[in-house]
Amino acid sequence: MEEKDIKPIPKYIIRKIRKLDDENRFVTDTSTRYYSYLTKINKDLARIIVACKVKDHQWFCKQVVVHTMNSDHCLVRDIDYSLFGYIVGWSKQILTYSHRRYDDGKWYKSDDKYYNVLCPIINKNYALKIDKYKYSAINKYKYLDIIKYLKIYEKYPQAEYLVKLNLSQFATNKSILKQVGKDKNFRKWLIKSRDYLKNEYGQYPYISSKVMLYAYKNNISIALSQKLDMKTKELQEDYNFRNKISKIIAKDEVITFINYLEKQETDCSTYADYLKACEKLNLDMTIDKNKYPKDFKKWHDIRIDQYHTLKAIEDEEKRKELYEKFEKVANKYLPMQRVMNEDFVVIIAKSPADLIKEGEILNHCVGRMNYDQKFAREESLIFFVRDKNNPQKPFVTVEYSLQNKKILQCYAKDNRKPQSNVEQFINKKWLPYAKRKLKEVA
Is residue 352 part of a domain? Predict the structure, then answer.
């Protein structure tokens, strides 16, 4: 199709468009409106979109887009496409005074999908006069994308069957059309279901081909199929399902899982807790009796109890291991203590319990953070500075870095700095002493 093949709008088409436009628009409406008509261009069915506008009580119209059956491209003139809609230039009609880049009166080739302006069709029945479309039921097709429908009809003649069932919304769906073409029982099912299907805005906003085919193949109601589809989408958005449960539930098993949760009156969060316990207990979750226990609540409680028991044993073992490592490190660096005939003494922490007690009495974090782990890994050591007259009472706490060979923190009660005489003792007497002893330890 070339520009030279496009004929002017027939006068009778202009009269029809003008009449319809006068009926539809408000007297003060100065916006651009669109209509279309069918015609032949080089023996090919074409749909031509016409833009209309009123200016100073004068009515104008012009062709802006031409679609044909045998092309994936269209010709466009004086019209621009944007995310916010279409813009038509009217400078040739002396309606505007500025020439925009798209408003030069020339025809340009463009992709069909960008200029598929959906608007009333003046002569829809024109297509029925063409032999290959006379059985297309185009006159009963209730949507405006006629070219798209006829292109589908050429490949899938069964589209006409759906239109005649008053199911035009599915007439361009290839999944449905393929099923109609090969499955007689599906066609019978459509007839039985059409009263529900023809109401596109029934109980749910949209009935997809996926929902339809699932209902048919599983012999369930469309309403139930819609409900399952909605629950599937909700499930896929659920944090516990996406990040935990989905690793044991295959895609084709999702509906089974949904039905199981509903039957057992539970949810993803509770199931995720059950799954965590089962994995900790090394249970095989590919076995149905573990994945889908008949009495979920009973087995959930059993597995959670077993989990806590195992966790307690492991925690006790870890605690014992930590205490042993802590004690070993404390004994290793014991020479760094300074217990002499002075005003203050320095003793090394002997266990995590010592840190907890120190932190609670002095109200700082030495017993709450991970200082016990750092101590056991020999990253830093914790020393307690005490008054020689009361060596059992927490006074000042010191964190010493073994890597950097320096004091990282030194705090008295409530994270206050120690008194100056204590600081002087720590920095001038204990620290040099500790560094000398550290060399001996190494």
Answer: yes
- Domain coverage including residue 286: 238-303
Sequence-ordered list of residues with C-beta below 8 angstroms from that of 91, at least 6 positions apart, any chain: 97, 98, 99, 100, 103
Q: What confidence tier does 127 reach under pLDDT thresholds 50, 70, 90?
A: very high
Residue 163's Cβ-count burial label (10 Å; 0-12, 13-18, 19+) is: buried
Do 288 and 349 fall within a single domain?
A: no
Q: Is residue 316 one of the residues assigned to a domain?
A: no
Are 16 and 92 members of one domain? yes
Give the model confidence (pLDDT) of 390-411 as tens digits: 999 999 999 999 989 999 999 9
Residue 363 CB contacts under 8 Å (≥ 6 apart), including other chains: 413, 414, 415
Is residue 296 domain-resident?
yes
Same domain, yes or no: 424 and 343: yes
Domains identified in the chain, total number: 4
pLDDT attached to residue 124: 92
DSSP state of 128: G
Contacts of 153 (CB under 8 A, 6+ apart): 133, 136, 159, 160
CA-CA distance, 363 to 268, in Å (whole number)?
Answer: 41
338, 394: one domain? yes
Distance from C-alpha of 268 to C-alpha of 245, rounded to nearest angstrom: 8
- What gap in Å lies between CA 408 and CA 384, rounded to an integer? 14
- 18 & 52 share domain: yes
16 and 104: one domain?
A: yes
Q: Is the same domain home to 252 and 177?
A: no
Q: Is 317 a member of any domain?
A: no
Half-sphere exposure at residue 333, Cβ-oriented, CA atoms within 13 angstroms? 27
User: What mean pLDDT do residues 131-154 have?
Assistant: 93
Strands (E), 90-201: 108-111
Q: How far apart are CA 194 and CA 222, in angstroms?
A: 11
pTM of the entire predicted model: 0.63
Q: What is the pLDDT of residue 39?
A: 96
